[in-house]
Amino acid sequence: MNMLTKCLFPAAGYGTRFLPATKAMPKEMLPIVNKPLIQYGVEEAIEAGFHDIGFVSGRGKRAIEDHFDISYELEHQIAGTSSEFFLEDIRRVISGCSFSYTRQNEIKGLGHAILTGQNLIGDNSFAVVLADDFCVNSPGVLSQMTELYRQYECTIVAVEEVPEDQTRKYGIIEGEEFENGLFKISGMIEKPEPQDAPSDLAIIGRYILTPDIFSILRNNKTGKDGEIHITDAINVQSKKQMVLGYKFKGQRFDCGTTEGFVKATNYVFGSMTR
């Protein structure tokens, strides 16, 4: 079986919905209480057994690299003080993973970002985490999907039900449920209008992809808005082989929006004070 060790984090977007905060700071570094959003995603990947972490970044994203590195000056300044406690989580992350980076020179969609990361993945099945989708559950969503991959060894996407008027914001799957919460996908559409949506099951930011996705992305035509969509590539896969949609256990906050970000912050703060 192709063992899962590599997890890719597309992180090249501009974060325009959070301006001016993201003018000089990556949106992935916005804190949910006292921990940056992207660290939660990396911790979820570690929990699921991934220890080769790759970032597809862009201009102005240096803070991500610095965060997942040792700050010797800071370590020296707070050594032996009560503040040292607050570095324990990130120390565990840094010591438990290897980190690699590549730059997406053009912002041409999620599919293009994943294709850009091929040099970090090689000929391996791998996970993709979109840090904007902040998911909470124990075990995490990626751990749940990894267990399914061990059984089926195919591409798996996480899905959840969305209101009918929200389908135009997501990739929407078409498929048949053959186990509780598990769907064999027969097709998917990128951001359909409600009347064109084949279901109310939307793909969210957790994927396990088989390596043939790279050749499909490379040969696929651009989709809506002139971008290369991962949804279109997985749709091609679904016509040739098994692709699964998994209705995950847990709660998702869309931290790509200010409303979702505030809700996630309130949830985490509430769980810390309970």
How large is the radius of gyration? 18 Å
**By CATH's scheme, which homologous superfamily applies?**
Spore Coat Polysaccharide Biosynthesis Protein SpsA, Chain A
Into how many domains do the coordinates divide?
Answer: 1
User: What gross morphology would you assign?
Assistant: globular
Sheet-strand content, in percent, reads 25-35%
Q: Which structural class fits the helix and strand makeup?
A: alpha/beta
Give a brief outline of the structure.
With 274 residues, the protein is α/β, with parallel strands linked by helices. It is built from ten helices and 13 strands.
Write a concise keyword list for the protein shown above.
33% helix; alpha/beta; Spore Coat Polysaccharide Biosynthesis Protein SpsA, Chain A; globular; 10 helices; two-stranded antiparallel sheet; 13 strands; 274 residues
